[in-house]
């Protein structure tokens, strides 16, 4: 069974460029959902691919709104109101694929308002914004959006099955291996992924590998050589790791590591004050 705590989509821009960031993961059935909250600063929020759909709520009572943020193909700056409180919900890839009435290909690389793509939830932003704190917003989302959190069937879908296999591999599996593991042809897998997630299985596997590489560098990057990280994540060599990592993050692994360490040092300095 998938370790639900393992995958939640790392968005380092939310850690580096916001204030008062907090998060809580919950599991519904066997699907992980990440709730989070932050206050924006002056800069646009850099978001990287994670294979998930996020619903992002502006919690300003005077101008509440919500965006449905599909997975990205590369790092993009997402413009948000400065110095404003936001509450977010990150759905697992399997839950993302089952959003009723939302063709995933329509939200890849874009962030439409919720009323345009999920019209049944057009008043949800106002409801979330009127709550006093993070836990109350989480509970309100659960009450008002239960259909987004609980899958209609207990039987795993093909995308759910594939996600579990890809996640367990850390994104190191090939599409041919995925085909053998599921019993479906590579052609059929491509068609189902593009139909439900809006991207190819090969790209989805690369995104999951990128996310696992992010986690590895954040947790052990100072202790591991790039060659070891490349070998651990199934890259051909160090150059392949750097090229793939940069294509998604616009940073080399070492640039990311330095910025991550600088963020941790700033956090420690704030705690000491």
Percent range of helical residues = 40-55%
Number of strands: 7
In round numbers, the mean pLDDT is 88
Number of domains: 2
Task: Describe the protein in words.
The chain has 273 residues and is of the alpha+beta class. The chain has 2 domains: 138 residues; 106 residues, Arc Repressor Mutant, subunit A, CATH 1.10.10. The protein has 13 helices and 7 strands. The strands form 2 sheets. The protein has a 5-stranded antiparallel sheet. β1 and β2 form a beta hairpin. It is globular. The chain starts with 11 loop residues before the first helix and ends with a helix. The N terminus is likely disordered.
What labels would you give this structure?
disordered N terminus; 273 residues; five-stranded antiparallel sheet; alpha+beta; Arc Repressor Mutant, subunit A; globular
Write the topology of this structure:
Elements: H1 12-16, E1 18-28, E2 31-40, E3 45-47, E4 53-58, E5 65-69, E6 76-78, E7 85-91, H2 93-97, H3 114-117, H4 124-129, H5 134-144, H6 146-149, H7 158-169, H8 175-182, H9 186-196, H10 201-220, H11 226-232, H12 238-249, H13 253-272
Antiparallel strand pairs: 1-2, 2-7, 3-6, 4-5, 4-7
